[in-house]
Amino acid sequence: MTLTDPFWLILLIPWAMSLWLWRMPSRLLLVLRSMGLAALFLALCGVSVVLPGRSGTVVLVADRSLSMPPDSAALEKEAADLVYAAMPPGDKLAVVSFAETAAVEQSPQASRFAGFSAEVGRDASRMADAFDLALSLIGKDESGRILLLSDGQWTGRDVAAPAARAAAAGVAIDYRAIERSAAGDLAVERFQAPESVLPGESFMITAWISSPIGQRIAYELRRGGRRISQGTTAVPSGTSRLLFRDTAGQSGSSEYVLEVKGEGEDPVPGNNRARLLVGTMGAKPLLCVHPGKASALPGLLAKGGLNLESKAAAECQWTLEELGGYSAVLLENTSANLIGHVGMENLSAWVAKSGGGLMLTGGRDGYGSGGYFKSPIEPILPVSMELRREHRKLSLAIVVVLDRSGSMAMRTPDGRAKMDLADLATAEVLNMLGPMDQFGCIAVDSAPHEIVPLSDVVDKEPMRRKILQIDSLGGGIFIYEALVAGARMIAPAKAGTRHIILFADASDSEHPEDWATVVGSCAKAGITVSVVGLGTERDCDAGLLKDIARRGRGQCMFTENSQELPRLFAQDTCVVARSAFIDEATAVRPSGGMISIRQQPLDAFPRIGGYNLCYLRPSANLALVTQDEYRAPVLASWQAGLGRSLCYTGEADGKYTGAVAGWKGAGDFFASLARWTAGKAQGLGPGIVATQELRNGVCRVELHLDPARSPTPFARLPQLTTLCARPGERAVARTTRMSWSSPDCLLAEIPLAGSETILNSVEVPGIGQTALSPICLPYSPEWVPRKPGQGAAALERLAKATGGSQRLNLSDVWQELPRKPRYAAMAPTLLLIAIALLLLEVFERRTGLLQIAVKSSLRRRFARSPRRTDTPRAVPDRQDRAAQSLPASAPPASERPRPEKPAVTSKISDENREDALSQARQRARRRMERS
Q1: 404-574 and 688-708+715-774 share one fold
Q2: 408 and which of 331, 472, 581, 856 could share a cystine (Cβ 3.0–4.6 Å)?
Q3: What integer pLDDT is reported at residue 866 of this predicted model?
Q4: Phi then psi dihedrals of residue 268, to 5 deg
């Protein structure tokens, strides 16, 4: 037994004094009071009893990063099986894996490990996070041990802090080193250049090459997609240097990529290629994106004095590296399909989080007709593109035919099945229709299944519930059956426009049979057919799907990203409804909002040849509006997060430009729109400078203040917004509050992982914001070259610090698992006992029944006890003992006179009885007064 708070024992002194000063009226009350106070004191002292130790837990921590050998997953699974096979009864095994993140693969339990399944990434080694997670799986009162399977390389937080917590908790960290071979590893050890340069400035690029042997290597340096240096050179064993020179462009950001190759086979090719980004200071140009055909708009903007760069949509990468080099992006009648889902997500995040600008012009490939409805770009636009019933000219009947074959059960990266996203896309089509329209839905595998019969869109909710319940049931989609079922359902429709949307897998469309006859019959009946293919145009059945759409006079759209399905279905519905684009010459009038975009107001504006029908969002600025029945916005703008967004719904250059094409002020007008979108030159004003530096895989952003300033120029701490993205992935925004690192400098640190690029933007409250140049690591930190045995030495130091050791025989880990004694706190039980004794004491004071019961029990016990039947041994009385002590000359006892015995009265006198009753009454009265 232990006492956690023994100082409460000092209360024993006043307790003993109280019992002596205020005596209890009876022994029973004294016992109850003493026991209750004793229980209370022991509870305050935190009495705990020691119990036998329970089972222990071993947590196996497995490294799954890129730095591990190719067969490391199989080796780690085999190690887990060996540990499980040697596990004693009652003990438990848990498994944690880590790379970019840490995850629990198996919680503590007595079962065999099934294998690694968690998505932890591979571009980092967050070992500290794995230790924190492993310690959380070991109970507070349990014994535990951590078995680490790793190459000894970690990134992110230092492992010293979690290792110290493990040592303090008595949890040792054992290890087994699993390292890749580093023999013959040629690597780009460092790749350096200035973070930013002035336009036209020449600068040096330095590469440090690590070679295990002297050899001749080949190298190639590219800027963007253009080679600027190439050759071969001899390098000695160890580290040597390559120098390059280049001249900065006018503005923007340039990506440099260096590749080296040795004479033999390289065991770690990941560090043979390195990249860096160099920003050019100064005003950034505007990027004008066109669909691929020549346009006069870039020439008009250049005449207006704008610094711009013109590209076809197919030439754009839509990465942070590329977007960070521009002040704004102009999309001239460019379809959303040419940008892609990831590109639109990056573009939207760049505008809202990094302060970029976005301008859209209209046409047949813009806005709703171009697929921007329900796209990632739509939320940042000042106009919306929904179909409103009051502006519909013709009724519409649509039948959606869905592929629900086995391939649709596959999961997307966000955990949803492809079938679920197809259901949502179909429901989006239903949402766009109104009471004047008709809708039907069919799900097809090896046979068609009617989900929603063709009916008027009056009550959408029952239809929606049926659509969202469609599941993948296996098999493949039978194209002929799907087309026949769709044609039969839509044939009786009376709507002015009848349309079929066929959704199919581009690599799993079976049994086409005589599909051409079915589609031809639909075309003759005025029924159009569009196809949305899940896959690419290179898939085996993509040609079939294209032919179906061509013969059906509809669209054919492909996507590998199932998250784009709702947007593609909505785009096709907009095109079919034919109310998304007005192809008639329309008069336009300026409004008061024009003055906020250009300094000179417009008295009149030429007629436009057509426009995309959109609707102004609340709080958006309206500058041009049509004078037809729709009163639709032609020019609208607003602030989109940190950036700006502007929409011109007319066509800038093309068939539907109208009288604007011959207007003398067209160049100045469009140049003013682009200039407003790009915004003012970013900066934080005098006395404040923002810098960034890459150090040990961490980007350090510093905000330097003038030491001679008067007060601090801002009331709240500046904020750093960081966009992070890997190649081919969407950008993710993170916000960091900067902190003081010195009296004149604020600092924020952003760790980089793997191949990701980050784009930082500093916002100073009350002053402004500025976007810094993009920055990246040369390659994943997992590919950093290391010396042989370096990882094993790091693991040995970690194990020694926690009392662990290297485990060559993994089953021995159970033999050294400590058995911790358990301490059970008795305070709650003692408090309950104290309360019960207090209640008994109060009960006794009020009634006295406990004392009566105790006396009655004792009386009955003595009354039932048996009498002794054996003759007791004669004990001489006092007189006999006195006689024995007399001298020999004394007379015998028989001759001495006996003393007279007092008379024994058999009854108590009346006077004594009165005294006894009086005393009893007095005791009872005192007892009542005290209670």
Answers
A1: no
A2: 472
A3: 57
A4: -130, 80
